[in-house]
Amino acid sequence: MERMFDVLIVGGGVAGMSAAIYAKRSGKNVAIIERATLGGVVGTLNKIENFPSQKEIDGFSLAQLFVKQVNSLEIETIFDDIVSAKLDGETKTVVGKIGQYRAKSIVIATGLSYQELGKNEAEFLGRGVSYCAVCDANFFKGQNVCVVSRKGSGIKDAKYLSNIAANVLVLDEADMSIFAQANTVKNMNLLSNTTIEKVVGKDNVEALECLVGGERKTIKTNGLFVCLGRSPKSEIFGDKLETDRQGFIKTDENMQTSIKGVYAVGDVRAGVMKQIVTACSDGAIAGKKATEGI
Ligand SMILES: Cc1cc2nc3c(=O)[nH]c(=O)nc-3n(C[C@H](O)[C@H](O)[C@H](O)COP(=O)(O)OP(=O)(O)OC[C@H]3O[C@@H](n4cnc5c(N)ncnc54)[C@H](O)[C@@H]3O)c2cc1C
Predict the structure, then answer these.
(1) What integer is the mean pLDDT of 93-117?
(2) Residue 237 lies in a domain
(3) CA 276 to centroid of ligand 1, rounded, Å
(4) Ligand 1 centroid to 166 CA: how many Å?
(5) Which of 81, 97, 190, 204 sits most deeply, having the most CB atoms within 10 A of its CB?
């Protein structure tokens, strides 16, 4: 089965849905291809306090507001998992597990994945465990938090957290003693050669069971930020697009990638912020630009 569209959006998170809304309102034949559910990461979040117009909202309700608008515009959603793409030439093709789809413009909105700790932290997601300091720091105002880091991967987030939390303790597998000596943030400390064995708590995170230089220790904390790195879901587009070192797709200010007619938006893009509001902004720009001249 092969179908043809004006604009195809791969990924139905908030970035993809914003692109679809703008593209469809330009009068074009638009579809979103999503492998799971519309809403992406936002649909899974407990509490959001920084999306303008919503003082506080749960992620599912916010995602549903986007879905409602997508449905009201009669934007088609195709449920398929895209596995490869052919992006050169006038017409672009993306290949899914179910079908093959062609379009004059493609918007890549596939998001990113966070490196997990691989212990029991998932049980405490939204109950003290977070993967995003900028998103969740404010929930830990005046509290003690830990940051799990790998060879310094969590330092930037720890510094951000130190402006909001009472104390920040960075737990790193590597020897960070040289860095610790040079560190001047007074409410931020570093513990080297430390691995987390288990997250402990009843309703929320209360402590971490760790091995510090091989010795078993329990560290009391109100929260754990997992800052082990993140990877864009850009691999299916291969080496055809220009990316940064981590694989985030580079674009110009119109969200156009190094290939004409191919746009990238939201968390998969090499942008400065990975937030809902910036994902929507990217989507709006790409959705509009993707319809021009086709
Ligand atoms: C724990 C946490 C808390 C956060 N809290 C906040 C917050 O409070 N405020 C805030 O502004 N931001 C927050 N964020 C960030 C925010 O969630 C993201 O910036 C936003 O979801 C990015 O949207 P997106 O559409 O780019 O990506 P995503 O939401 O990741 O959507 C990508 C979509 O693409 C689909 N997809 C991927 N690959 C394929 C494929 N091959 N074929 C078909 N479909 C595919 C996925 O299934 C997914 O639905 C938080 C993030 C996390 C992890």
Answers:
(1) 97
(2) yes
(3) 8
(4) 29
(5) 190
| Closest atom of ligand 1 to CA, residue 43 | 29
Residue 129 sits in a domain of what CATH number?
3.50.50.60
Per the structure, the count of domains in the chain is: 2
| Distance from C-alpha of 46 to C-alpha of 48, rounded to nearest angstrom | 7
Say whether both 190 and 149 belong to one domain.
yes
pTM metric for this prediction = 0.90
In this structure, the answer to whether residues 50 and 76 fall within a common structural domain is yes
For 241-269, the pLDDT digits (tens) are: 999 999 999 999 999 999 999 999 999 99
Tell me if residue 250 falls in helix, strand or coil: coil
Q: Which residues span the domain enclosing 135?
A: 116-227
Which ligand 1 atom lies nearest to the CA of residue 51? 11
List C-alpha distances in Å: 41 to 105, 139, 167, 264. Answer: 24, 19, 28, 17
Residues with CB under 6 A from ligand 1: 10-16, 33-36, 40-42, 45, 48, 50-51, 81-82, 109-111, 114, 130-132, 135-136, 233, 236, 266-267, 274-277, 279
Q: Is residue 245 part of a domain?
A: yes
Residue 36: which residues within 8 A CB-CB, separation 6 or more? none
Residue 185 binned pLDDT confidence (cut-offs 50, 70, 90): confident
Say yes or no: 95 and 165 in one domain.
no
pLDDT digits (tens, 9 = 90+) for 190-199: 999 999 999 9
Cα–ligand 1 centroid distance for 266 (angstroms)? 8
Confidence bin at 186 (pLDDT 50/70/90):
confident
- The answer to whether position 185 is within a domain reads yes
Residue 284 CA to residue 242 CA, distance in Å, equals 22
Statement to judge: residues 131 and 191 lie in one domain: yes
Ligand 1 atom nearest to CA at 96:
42
- By most ligand atoms within 8 Å of CB, the mutation choice from 10, 17, 45 for ligand 1 is 45
Q: Is residue 294 part of a domain?
A: no
